[in-house]
Amino acid sequence: MRAFSQSRHTALSDVDRTVRWCEYRDLPELQSGQFVSVMHRLDVDSSQLADRMCAVQLPSQECVILVLPEYLHDDGVLALRIAMGQVGLRLAARSVVTVPASVLSAIARKGRIEQRAGVSQSRLKTGSTSGHVLFSLLDDLLGWAVRHDASDVHIGVFRGQAHADVAFSVRGVLVRPVQFAKLSIEIMHEMLSVAWMRVQGGNGAVFEPQYEQQGRLERLVGGSRVSLRWASIVSHKGPSVTLRLLQRERSVATTDLSGLGYSEPQLQCLYRARLSTGGAVLLAGSVGSGKSTTLAALIRSLPPERKVITLEDPVEFDLPNAIQCGITAFGDGESDRARFDIKLQALKRSAANDVLIGEIRDQGSARALADLLLAGTNVYSTVHAGSALQIVPRLCSPTLGVSPDLLAVPGVLKLLVYQTLLNALCVECCLDHSQWLSEGERTCPLGMPITHDHAAAWLEMIEGCLQIDRSQFRFRHPQGCSRCQPLLAVSDSGMSGRHPDGEVRAQVSCASGHHSTGYRGSLMAAEFIEPARIVHFWSWIQSLSRMTDVREQARHQSWIDEQQKASEMAKIYVSQGLLDPREYVLRFGSA
């Protein structure tokens, strides 16, 4: 320690030798990562102290020394206190904090990343990205996602690979733009580590590649505030981080229910559910199927005399007529459950007429659903299920644990909805059946090349299954046209021309063999169940073993006769030449 050999004796007299200390768990700022290392500002040999202690600054501008318990009374602690005083850093009242070795190692790594990236505490607090290369890289990724309406950003940092795997979910397709294909593992790891410093409600003070982590993050991208839901999963090769984009300030152009793509009978179902008192409206569907958009439009359409409260994790849309409450669902399970219960108790004392629960995904949210239904509240939520009919078994599963006896009470379930978004063909370049048969790039629904004879046999088979004349079929053009080619680049070999604005046009591959060229927009396919209108629905819930019976009963109900089933709606799109029959088979099967 260079400076201490000359001034150590005089400096010691100015420093209180009494060590006032506390434990790591006593400072929530440390557990949530709200600190920056100050070791690079001190005139000490940090390499000699790195495995024992380090100094950090909290949001309050006060500093603390993090030390392993066995070095609590080491001379290094006193040396750090002197060094911080010499550069004008203010010590906290409890200036020494004991931490486990694993935490100290992670914090030391965080400090090295900060020093290399040039992160300042003020920049982290204000969110400025102008001079920060790593935050600028993150904002570049998010900017691309916003411009191309991507729902997720996927970042894989895998051992043994020179470059990170960066992909985006666009209309259910994984897209890998060429401009992000050469980002090194080291750069992306550091970017994730720096980004984690801004995560709220996360489990862990720093980014830990060997542990699953979740949290929330907000960035200002292109003038709009983008809320991100961070979820990482650890594979045997390394971590994969998924950032779900939740653009709370985005303008929902079709805020009216009538503009979301539902048929008129389905809209009438939504209107009836909106006006009735008590019971649940539950939506199921795949990722990116518009469930949250539908719920937002439904909540916006409620009359102003009704008090609306939401419980969301995180808040996804701005709803002017609702009191929106965020629920932290990350951390240790017991404390999360307690926080949810506290919020629920406060909600029940708030005299709400309508309550939106963002998603029923665990027993805490399922318990809230049951509690609110018993109180006679109107409840709106989403759940993961493969069809409208599967929503009930999903709620009654051991994972969620809702009682079938509760759901079997008439009026508790008002409306069950399953929906999915299908790729709409570009009408400018789509192929008819004869053009497709003669096309050199014929593929089956799974995307594999097939011969002319195989294609002809498949065409005859699907014509019989769908009961649609082949003259009505239209197929996606594999190269697309100027109207539908997206500004997406995947690989150097995938480039197919350059747009006047300088961006590269390319085909975008996905696992199923589909491409994003040849498509323009999306089509809504949904199915609705109004339990009150289906005979024996309540008795089926009690048994949960009469799936065939309830389907047979449903065949006589108006929701099937009026094409209120998702597969029936998709058939209509096929007959109108709006949906590729191969996508129909891929989504719903051949029957």
UniProtKB/TrEMBL annotation:
GO terms for molecular function: ATP binding; ATP hydrolysis activity. SUPFAM superfamilies: P-loop containing nucleoside triphosphate hydrolases (SSF52540). Residues 134-486 form the Bacterial type II secretion system protein E domain. The keyword Ribosomal protein does not apply. Keywords: ATP-binding, Nucleotide-binding. InterPro entries: P-loop_NTPase, T2SS/T4SS_dom. GO terms for cellular component: plasma membrane. Belongs to the GSP E family. This is General secretion pathway protein. It comes from Orrella marina. The lineage of its organism: Bacteria, Pseudomonadati, Pseudomonadota, Betaproteobacteria, Burkholderiales.
